[in-house]
Amino acid sequence: MLSLLKKLTASAPAAVTPDAPPPAKVDPYMLGLQDAMLSGWFNQENGELFTGFPVTAEDTLLDVGCGDGGNVHYCAMRGAKIIIADIDAAKVEATRQRLSDTPARGVECHVTDCNPLPIADGTASRVVSTEVIEHVDDPAQFLSELVRVGQPGALYLLSVPHPSSEDLQKDIAAPEYFQKPNHIRIISEEQFKQMVGDAGLEVLSHSQYGFYWSMWMLLFWEAKVDFSNPDHPLLDQWASTWQTILNSPRGVQIKHALDAVVAKSQVIIARKPG
């Protein structure tokens, strides 16, 4: 019987099927946004920029080191008054333009090195500074300025790279990645909590996320492409793989398990006493 089946199948003409269209390319940045939302960012249901950090129209929110303005755009859409501060004038202007058609109560912009911040004491009810402390010369001075401009009871959302990811990049990243004005220090979990506590803030939560970005950055250095156009098979295949993982039945569980091992960032939510 087996030999008969072999003969029959061998002599049967091959089925002709139309060429399948190539799978759609996964946008690594949109996938990163999806991954971030699964980690607690940009919660539309309860109005939290990050888990434990609600933002309302009554808030005055200061973002120091605003970057591309993604965080403040979410907060502006909540109707909050927005104050942005960054050393890069181009980023400040781009963020200002990005916020121009939002329902923010107001938008105030500062180009500054934050030493000191040109903002009055007790101004903000919400203070955000993500991926900045690893760049600054004096973290204690920087944090003291953030604390000074916060109202009593203000909430703080602070993040720095997680040492697990930084250690992973050490022998692969371009040398300038760990040179001024980029990352001039690696901050451990205990050091981060100590910094925030020494500045006079009460740490409410400390979490980590970003396995996807840790691996993406590792492959980015190997691909040797431009960050603004990261077109390379290594990066494309990694994004496609991660999207497939997230879409799997236990994808989110797998994501959180990997985030706990190697994380791109660590996040502290803190409160100013008073």
Notes on the protein architecture:
With 274 residues, the protein is α/β, with parallel strands linked by helices. The protein has a domain at 46-210 and 262-271: Vaccinia Virus protein VP39 (Rossmann fold, 3-Layer(aba) Sandwich). It is 38% helix and 22% strand. The protein is built from 10 helices and 10 strands. The strands form 2 sheets. Strands 6-5-4-7-8-10-9 form a 7-stranded mixed β-sheet, sandwiched between helices. The model is unreliable at 4-9 (pLDDT under 50). One of its GO terms (molecular function) is S-adenosylmethionine-dependent methyltransferase activity.
Brief write-up:
The chain has 274 residues and is an alpha/beta fold. Helices cover 38% and strands 22% of the residues. It has helices at 2-11, 28-38, 70-77, 89-98, 139-149, 163-169, 189-198, 211-223, 233-247, 251-259, and strands spanning 41-43, 48-50, 53-54, 60-64, 81-86, 106-111, 124-130, 150-161, 202-209, 265-271.
